[in-house]
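Operator note (shift B, R.M.): manual run for ABC-2 type transport system ATP-binding protein requested after the automated queue skipped it. Running by hand, logging everything below so the morning shift can see what happened. Input copied straight from the record, untouched. If output looks odd, do not overwrite the archive copy; leave it for review.
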Amino acid sequence: MSTEVTENMIELSGVQKRYLLKAALTGIDLQIKKGSIVGLLGPNGSGKSTLLKILAGLIHPTSGAIRIAGRAPDASHKKQIAYLPEIDHLYGWMTVDETLRFIAGFYDDWQADKAAELLMTMDLDGRQKVRNLSKGMRARLKLIAALSRNVPLVLLDEPFSGIDPSSRAKIIRSIVSEFQTGEQTIILSTHSVSESEPMFDEVIFLHHGSVKLFDTADNLRSSYGCSLENIWEKVYA
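Run finished. Output pasted below as returned.
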């Protein structure tokens, strides 16, 4: 049995993904440390969702090597990853409580006490039908489902998409408060750069399926002399 120890949660080497004639990822090389919150930034079509789906094990790369927690991914890795997709996968006829109990049934690592705590933090009523929730409330419920699992890797694809500032603020506070420093790695794809950047340890800028920039948030702000939001404007001008 391997006893290899690595400080990296994720290692990608030459990862490419093609859909017929279209290249979604054109050769990704990355090393992401354990215990960090990583911002995954880029315009629509830059490859963010494709990269997260590959890391979640939902799709396979066309070529390249992937290592998660020091090992090549296999079926067991899915049990160590919480993935929140951009699409809404909730059942409208369920209540909030029924939704969480339904999701809990799929995972041995589910933390019911954390789910209950997050329900209060997110200001959701467990008796409400999902169909009656606003888009912001549904986004909060999806995040509860992801953060209630005790896993080393959390992948969040556009958790703020189309929701109001109040809900965005609640979600950001919950991500930061529930983050297990040193134990958990969170990769968060977002267009809400100005509100999200205070929580990022490292930042990846993708462009046309490749890494445009990758560094710590502090180093990027220091190098460019401006905020991450302003760096975005310069990178994608």
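Quick read of the result: The radius of gyration is 18 Å. Residues 36-57+76-235 form a domain with the Rossmann fold fold (CATH 3.40.50.300).
Leaving this for review. - R.M.
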